Amino acid sequence: MVNDLKLRESDDIQGDVIAGFKKDQMTLLFLKFEDAARARTWVKALEPQISTTRQVATFNAAFSKARKASAGDDPKALKATWINVSFTCAGLRELTGKDPLPSVKPGSGLEAFKQGSDKRALGDTGDSSPEMWLFGNGNGKGQVVHAVLTVASDTVQDLQATVRQQREACAAAKIVIVFQQDAATLSGSRRGKEHFGFKDGVSEPGVIGFDEPDPVKPEYAKGHHGTRLIPPGEFVVGHDRVGGVPHETPDWADNGSFQVVRRLGQDVPGFWSQVAGQLKALKQAKVVPPEATTEWLAARLVGRWRSGTPVATCPNADRPSSALAGEDNDFGYRNDPEGFITPLFSHLRKTNPRDGLQEKPGDPPFDENPVMDRRRIIRRGAPYGAPFDPASEGPGGPDEKRGLLFVCYQSDLVQQFEFIQKAWIDSPDFPPNRTNKPGPDGMVGAAGKLSYETPGKTTQLSLSQFVFTEGSVYAFAPSLTLLRLLGDGRLTDKPPAVVRPTDAFLPIPDMQRDEGKSWYWAYGAGSDSAVCRTVSIADGDEHTDVIERPDRPLTMWPCYVGVTKVDAVLPVPDEQRINGRSRFWLFHTVEGRQVYRRIWIADGAESGLPPEQAAGTDLPDRSLSAWASFSGIERVDAFLPVPDMQRVNGKSHYWVFHTLMGRQVYRLISVADGRMHQDALERGDRGLDLWRSLAGITRVDEFLAVPDMQRINGMSLFWVFHQDQYRIIVIRDGHGHEDQITVEDRPLTMWTSLTG
Known about the structure:
alpha+beta; four-stranded antiparallel beta sheet; 12 helices; 28 strands; about 30% strand
């Protein structure tokens, strides 16, 4: 089995994820990129400095061996400084110049990553609200975070030297340090404990393929009592998961891990004061032993005594002298379903119910594997701030900022961290279906009522909130392979899909919404001349598009004689499918000057008609000056029909986008029905900034109506093409024609019909 520990040899997985830095000193730098090109250069220089799983695992094994040989003392000769890096979704977008997740499944971990923790309902209200955070609320009063750089070391001196080097490298790359968070292991008798005074990090899971199995109980880690081995795919993307559950992540995420970073402030004096007050209430109710102390009750709020000894195995007193106290996980709650020994609201039981979770009282408990195993996270982090000292006038006083820098890794933010936080920690009704709700987590949860259960009696406790969110970020720790690609501005080493630039679309008149598909001619540039391919777009949520016929030269149709590039196409509004023909104004450029002609397309043009019967010209090239509404326009870029003003009172209205003195603007025109098709300028030129849905766009190349989403509940959707991206916007009927973005920018490579 030892020979199967292949993950220990990984030089592709960053070292903090499954090996763990496990250093006394740690600093996190929260970074914002100001210049994408310089940021990519910074990534290239950083990549060789990143600590890998192999490096960290090898060091940790040697450190552990030397520590045992010295009877528990840290070996002073063994020192190391480790560096890891992670990126937010916004950071990946900055480095690659495109959306790394153009399409995400609602409710998925990828959606959570894309939105960011400040947009997620994590119980962060009041003093924990995102607008109060020190970092991570980029759309609020703070700055956006693009990357998180983790530096960990055995000594303060080595940490400070490395952090100084990294700060200088950031400055040279025009990278802003949004926030610096220092953290360190507490000293003396507090070592290994958090600020409330309890042993931390005891219940970490083991990882199959990394931790050696116990020879007697191979489902547990050797030398770690009761520590279950969890499939690595719960923490590292692309590996086996519990029950064979598939990953719904892109290939570029393999060997990476999703990281949660939260600064959690702790009210230490408030915690112990309220514990003392609630103990009095329990004694008055005569539901606790007369000799019970604040330590006794605090241990029940936590689920462990200060040393780490579980209340479940040692309910009456701590055993700090036990060699196993700080690493004992060999226990469960199956024999304590009502929480008489370890309360149902205890932090330990809320975050990992183990073998004691029931659907409702009296039901058999769930199988710990796989139900509980799918919710595990790997926790890293350390305390920050001076320990509480009520007599101190300086560091250590009651007003000192102190707490826990919480860091965890997982492969699914929603199913792991968010599930634990929302469904377990913050839920007063977990475990579920109890007559008396257990209440939120007694240690880290929100303020609330807790049900202290004793045989035949329930006593209500009332506790305030002792832990507050002061900053939060969702990030992704990429593989070393991906990190090298990010230095080149890429997410994959596959050749990028080639998008054939499309200059204009012409809707094939008799093939719109035909058997669930709408067909178009897509004009573009071929190797020698302008070409046209036939594409289709299916109705439905996905709007699947395909190439129906490959590129064909325009020279095969008589109506395109002299056309080398199609700039825009506008259907003649009252001449669609009249006597089997439909007419269009086609705008194109001749010797640097844009002109237009009128062409007709016959029904059945895609059914094999001879070219001269499929399409023709009934008005030769004319100057744009023939359009009264085009005064001052030298070149039309795109037309957008006003959805609820087509063929209304004999007129059709259009927004015309054109370039004026190097800047794209738009105007509103109308075209009348009838033989003359008289046109008029309804409103003069305006800037694109008046369109909320076009924010960030300096030039629109083309609009295309989403065929099955026109005038639905007073709304019409359009694809907006600009450069190598597109977005979806909605325009409402009515006087103001309110517009907004419904789908943010995505790469054009998402269109199958436009690649190749």
